């Protein structure tokens, strides 16, 4: 099986999504495509540059908040983006640039907020942002020709960045949300799925937010569309 080494120029929403795909689903993609993908260099205007020709460990980079990420101090890292040097000097098969070429789309204003809308970083409390994502999913699928959905549920782990009122990634006014900022909330190539569920199945899904088996985090609170008045009492029976 072959392998392609990648250099990522820019580490915003688009390339972070690609890096997450490679990090989380790289083995599966290799089986499906017949070749593997390995990131050996990353440059970013804010974070600097990072090079490891044996392959960069992407997981800790993806775990960091985008605005707090810095490659300075890491082995092979520098505070200097060094875009041209990386493209010219680092042996790669593919250079993925998601900076200036994507700027017109990334910087486009797509909405506005009047206050911060935040996720639950620990995923064990209700999140306004996860609920908002669920509301948006319902709005996208409620029409009969789009599935006729009546309820939407959002996995809290899929909400990856807050919407911050004071943030300005492209010089936009406070409260304005760019496409890149919206994309960073869910930087994945996932799909919205509509399906038929019974009331019992929905109840089971809600019960599974709470787990005492030790096989995963004990509490993972879903984003739920429209409904904001659910309660859980672990002392009561499940049936």
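Sequence proposed for the structure above (239 residues):
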């Amino acid at each position: 099986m072959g392998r392609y080494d990648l250099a990522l120029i820019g580490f915003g929403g688009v390339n972070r999504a690609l890096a997450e795909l490679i990090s989380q689903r790289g083995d599966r993609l290799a089986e499906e495509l017949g070749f593997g993908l390995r990131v050996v260099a990353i440059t970013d205007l804010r974070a600097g540059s990072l090079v490891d020709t044996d392959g960069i460990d992407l997981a800790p980079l993806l775990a960091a908040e985008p605005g707090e990420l810095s490659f300075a101090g890491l082995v092979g890292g520098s505070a200097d983006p060094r875009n041209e040097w990386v493209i010219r000097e680092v042996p790669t098969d593919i250079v993925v640039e998601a900076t200036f070429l994507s700027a017109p789309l990334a910087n486009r204003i797509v909405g506005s907020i009047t206050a911060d809308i935040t996720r639950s970083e620990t995923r064990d409390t209700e999140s306004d942002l996860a609920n908002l994502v669920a509301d948006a999913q319902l709005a996208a699928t409620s029409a009969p020709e789009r599935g006729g959905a009546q309820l939407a549920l959002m996995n809290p782990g899929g909400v990856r960045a807050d919407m911050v009122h004071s943030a300005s990634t492209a010089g936009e006014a406070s409260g304005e949300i760019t496409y890149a900022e919206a994309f960073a909330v869910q930087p994945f190539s996932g799909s919205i799925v509509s399906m038929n569920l019974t009331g019992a199945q929905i109840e089971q899904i809600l019960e599974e937010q709470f787990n005492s088996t030790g096989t995963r985090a004990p509490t993972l609170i879903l984003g739920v569309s429209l409904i904001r008045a659910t309660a859980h009492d672990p002392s009561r029976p499940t049936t």
